[in-house]
Amino acid sequence: MKGYFSIGELSKYQNISKQTLIFYDKIGLFRPAYVDPQNGYRYYSAKQIDYLDTILIMKKIGFPLSQIREHMEHYNTAGSLAALGRQVEVIDRKMEELSLIRSRLLHRCGQMEQAQKYLRQEVPVLVEEVPAQCLLIREVAPPYSLREISIATKECFAQAFQEKLPIFFQSGVTVPLERVRRGEYIQASHAFLPIEDTDRAKNIRRLPGGKCAAIYHVGDYQSIGRSYRRLLDYCQGQGLALRSGSFEFCINDYITTEDESEYITKIQFYVG
Fold this sequence. Notes:
The chain has helices at residues 7-14, 18-26, 46-61, 65-73, 77-116, 146-163, 177-181, 225-237, and strands at 4-6, 34-35, 42-45, 125-130, 133-139, 172-175, 190-195, 204-207, 210-218, 246-252, 264-270. With 272 residues, it is an alpha+beta fold. The strands form 2 sheets. It has an 8-stranded antiparallel β-sheet. A 3-stranded antiparallel β-sheet has the order 1-3-2. The mean pLDDT is 94.
């Protein structure tokens, strides 16, 4: 039609698919100026190109389609200024959240890079001063098997995502000292996620800084007993008294590899 653009022409000029234009028509966001009753072909006026530009720019800025449709019904300078101002606040919040996520991912990457060397060499026992840290914890239900540990871990992640808590995208478990002494190395009492200090959750355990003995276990979780025995023998030989149960921090796990031979777990006790 003379003076109108077909849907194919508009799709080409705006670099947008025909399917998107059809969808916008169906939801009432951007309807054609004319639809041929004989064949159903859609045609758009020149004025509508500017209107579509506004829609695409708002979408690029991050507005959801429902808000764009509502805004475009009766928009003016004052309304646009208010909407854009609100979107700046939304973007600022997202940038802050992404900055925190980035820092936590770098933290995880640093741990993984440090632990990679233990895939290729003899794993030593470490005695080190560790900083204070916080854990988001969930109790593991009896009989404390891997199934119950997995459920408690998933509950931690679900809570953290739902409540937008500042976790470090790492998991772990605690094993009470009496169970360790009985050789029940995989009977954890709690699952945890390392987390920044926050008062937004009640189930936070705050660990003090202090002297710890640790070892990196390489291999599947069922074989972790051999690393426990090495660590316990070392502490006994060095006269180091265990002051806590164990804290197991997953460095490499199902999140980072499907090969269980590459799993790395840091086992840590407070000692004195």
